[in-house]
């Protein structure tokens, strides 16, 4: 797999989760890992896409939280990850905001999976939900991939990664 996924204990902060994940994955100590967030729209460090450096070297990361569940991913290529509560997605479901023409999602689980898959792709692209979910057509991705992940009961999760490019 071109990525490494980890679930973290309830209450773990995003910063701590990324440091522990990087330490285990890269074989470094958590104290050499720096991470944060950067919003591509406003430049804020209080929200936006996560970033991570170990010994000054940047690594591709993503994270997602739903209730007590925190999920992180590290990769050698651009990557995105998402975890969603099936019940929460069902309560707010609006197919016109999520599904592209020709796509369908009949059950609550189908709807949550569509949401999770598309959000993971948008995170991998670096836009997050600044781009409409309807712009992602899961059956027609070029150079991008997604996979469903095992998730806690009542939740779904997905990861998306870009194909490795020459020199990257």
UniProtKB/TrEMBL annotation:
Statement: the UniProt record of this protein carries the keyword Transferase: yes
From the record, give the transmembrane residue ranges. none
Kindly name one Pfam family recorded for this protein. Answer: ACPS
Give the keywords, sorted. Answer: Transferase
Matching InterPro entries, A to Z?
4-PPantetheinyl_Trfase_dom, 4-PPantetheinyl_Trfase_dom_sf
Q: Where does the source fall among the domains of life? A: Bacteria
| Name by which UniProt lists this protein | 4'-phosphopantetheinyl transferase superfamily protein
Q: Which residues form the 4'-phosphopantetheinyl transferase domain?
A: 78-140
Q: Does the keyword Glycoprotein apply?
A: no
Listed GO MF terms: transferase activity
């Amino acid at each position: 797999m071109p990525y490494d996924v980890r679930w973290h204990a309830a209450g773990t902060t995003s910063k701590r989760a990324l440091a522990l994940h990087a330490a285990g994955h890269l074989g470094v100590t958590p104290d050499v890992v720096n991470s944060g967030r950067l919003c591509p729209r406003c430049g804020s460090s209080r929200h936006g896409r996560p970033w991570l450096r170990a010994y000054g070297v940047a690594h591709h990361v993503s994270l997602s939280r739903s209730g007590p569940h925190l999920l992180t991913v590290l990769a050698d290529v651009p990557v995105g990850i998402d975890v969603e509560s099936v019940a929460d997605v069902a309560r707010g479901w609006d197919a016109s905001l999520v599904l592209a023409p020709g796509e369908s999602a009949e059950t609550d689980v189908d709807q949550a999976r569509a949401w999770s898959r598309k959000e993971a792709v948008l995170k991998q692209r670096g836009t997050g939900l600044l781009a409409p979910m309807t712009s992602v057509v899961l059956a027609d991705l070029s150079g991008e991939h997604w996979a469903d992940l095992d998730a806690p009961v009542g939740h779904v999760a997905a990861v998306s990664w870009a194909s490795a490019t020459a020199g990257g």
